[in-house]
Design brief:
By secondary structure, the protein is α/β, with parallel strands linked by helices. It contains 13 helices and 21 strands. It has 3 domains: 203 residues, FAD/NAD(P)-binding domain (3-Layer(bba) Sandwich); 112 residues, FAD/NAD(P)-binding domain (3-Layer(bba) Sandwich); 105 residues, FAD/NAD-linked reductase, C-terminal dimerisation domain (Enolase-like, domain 1, 2-Layer Sandwich), CATH 3.30.390.30. The structure holds NADPH dihydro-nicotinamide-adenine-dinucleotide phosphate.
Length: 454
């Protein structure tokens, strides 16, 4: 009889952990999983899912404005934050239950407890129970990071808290220029909050193509968000009527807000996990070090998802989790390609990308062909908005392979998923050109760009 309680023990029931546990169980492994909070992890509880529900809500007032151009007049929308928040929470709780059921129905034992590594093959749960496992997977994710030295730090709200605010703010300051800052600025603004965003860089969304960064910033401003770049928060002081923020930008006077959202990044959630006693090492960013098979510096201990700080996206964690399970219990040694991973920022307007930015492509290819299209979407022709849709293709001039694609405009994410399949298969510009468009749609522009940028 085995001296192990489990073949595979997973710490953290988020996207990566749940997928790994279910895959391993389906392959015949005896699997246990520990979760200290809610099943589904960041994505289901304080990330992708509730965020997208909020994005939907915040788009309705804008849609109602556009509707006027089509002869439909709606009364000024009245927004009930408590209703949105609580209905969202009900939906999240429903998903928590589904996740647990999926695990149980796959034969995985669920432990509602915090787990700590005692060695590379043993964990201790917060209930005191000790479990020995042949293989252990760390899939604990990340958590919001706030600057340590800010005066008035205690008055900051992080992105997790945004989903449970007691009251919806009338005036909000968003600090940061990444995914979360940009998405929440759109949500707040769309739902009627006077929204200011400050970012320390020149343009929002560092790491994205400069052409889309500039255009997104303009569109967000046109929708009513005050965007101040090259600006840092210096302090927050509580007043009788709100929170007074001061900035390092001399052109920006102190201002009062009801809420200051600090979206300055996330960090791997590795505290008190017992990593040291198991021999699991961190890199200099605080992320767990793994080799190409996701094995940590401790034999038998693996890690996937946001705790690696590699590509912190739900579908990537899912793929990594599945890969580890198949590796251990089906003997499959596949590798995950991190090229051509499509992703979307649910900003307003939406941004979706796949592959390289023009700047990144220039570092890899001697010559590029750039195709771009900028147009007024049909919806806005009667809707009356001046917002434009922007698309860009980055093509390796020698092989003619499309190595980068991006769309800034409504439904960008829905468009990009299909193009990502083609790009992963190595599609060339000629393949795009040979594809017939769907008319009338914005997406058809992706296959009808004929003129190279000079
Ligand atoms: P990001 O890394 O995307 O952005 C962090 C932002 O904070 C950057 O603009 C950064 O500026 C700024 N910043 C960092 N430190 C400071 C500081 N000390 N003072 C002022 N500004 C600072 O992190 P997010 O928290 O927005 O998102 C975390 C990750 O979660 C994302 O990278 C993404 O992978 C994932 N995510 C994905 C979503 C999606 O798929 N739609 C949605 C939300 C999150 P600078 O650029 O100058 O460094």
């Amino acid at each position: 009889m085995s001296s192990f309680d489990y073949d595979f023990f997973v710490i953290g029931a988020g996207s990566g952990g749940v997928r790994a546990a279910r895959t391993a169980a389906a392959l015949g492994a005896k699997v246990g999983i520990a979760e200290e909070k809610h099943y589904g992890g960041t994505c289901v509880n304080v990330g992708c899912v509730p965020k997208k529900l909020f994005v939907y809500a915040s788009q309705f007032p804008h849609q109602a404005q556009l509707a006027a151009g089509f002869g439909l007049q709606f009364a000024k929308p009245e927004f009930d934050w408590a209703s949105l928040r609580d209905r969202k929470t009900q939906e999240v709780e429903r998903l928590n239950g589904i996740y647990q059921n999926l695990l149980r129905n796959s034969g995985v034992d669920c432990f509602n407890a915090r787990a700590q590594l005692l060695s590379n093959q043993e964990v201790e749960l917060s209930t005191g129970q000790r479990i020995r496992a042949k293989h252990i997977l760390i899939a604990v994710g990340g958590k919001p990071w706030l600057p340590d030295d800010l005066l008035g730090r205690e008055h900051l709200t992080n992105s997790d808290q945004m989903f449970y605010l007691p009251q919806f703010p009338k005036r909000a300051l968003v600090v940061g220029g990444g995914y979360i800052a940009v998405e929440f600025a759109g949500i707040l603004n769309g739902l009627g909050c006077e929204t200011t965003l400050i970012h320390r860089g020149d343009y929002l969304l560092r790491g994205f193509d400069l052409d889309v960064r500039q255009r997104l910033q303009q569109s967000m401003q046109a929708r009513g968000i005050r965007v101040n770049t090259q600006t840092q928060l210096q302090s927050i002081v509580k007043s009788d009527s709100g929170l007074v923020a001061s900035f390092n930008n001399s052109e920006l006077a102190d201002q009062e807000f009801d809420l200051v959202l600090c979206a300055t990044g996330r960090m791997p959630y590795t505290q008190d996990l017992g990593l040291e006693q198991a021999g699991v090492e961190l890199d200099d960013r605080g992320a767990i070090k793994v080799d190409e098979r996701y094995q940590t510096t401790a034999t038998n201990v693996y890690a996937v998802g946001d705790v690696l700080e590699r590509v912190t996206l739900t579908p990537v964690a899912l793929a990594e989790g599945m890969l580890v399970a198949r590796q251990l219990f089906a003997g499959q040694e596949q590798k995950l390609s991190y090229d051509f991973i499509p992703s979307a920022v649910f900003s307003q307007p939406e941004l979706a990308v796949c592959g390289l930015t023009e700047e990144q492509a220039l570092e890899q290819y001697p010559e590029l062909d750039i195709y771009q299209s900028e147009f007024k979407p049909m919806l806005h022709s009667l809707g009356g908005s001046d917002e434009r849709c922007y698309m860009k293709l980055v093509v390796d001039a020698v092989s003619q392979r499309v190595v980068g694609a991006m769309v800034l405009g409504e439904h960008a994410a829905e468009m990009m998923q299909g193009f990502a399949v083609a790009m992963n298969m190595g599609a060339t510009k000629a393949d795009f050109d040979a594809t017939i468009g769907i008319h009338p749609s914005a997406a058809e522009e992706m296959v009808t760009m004929r003129t190279k940028r000079q």
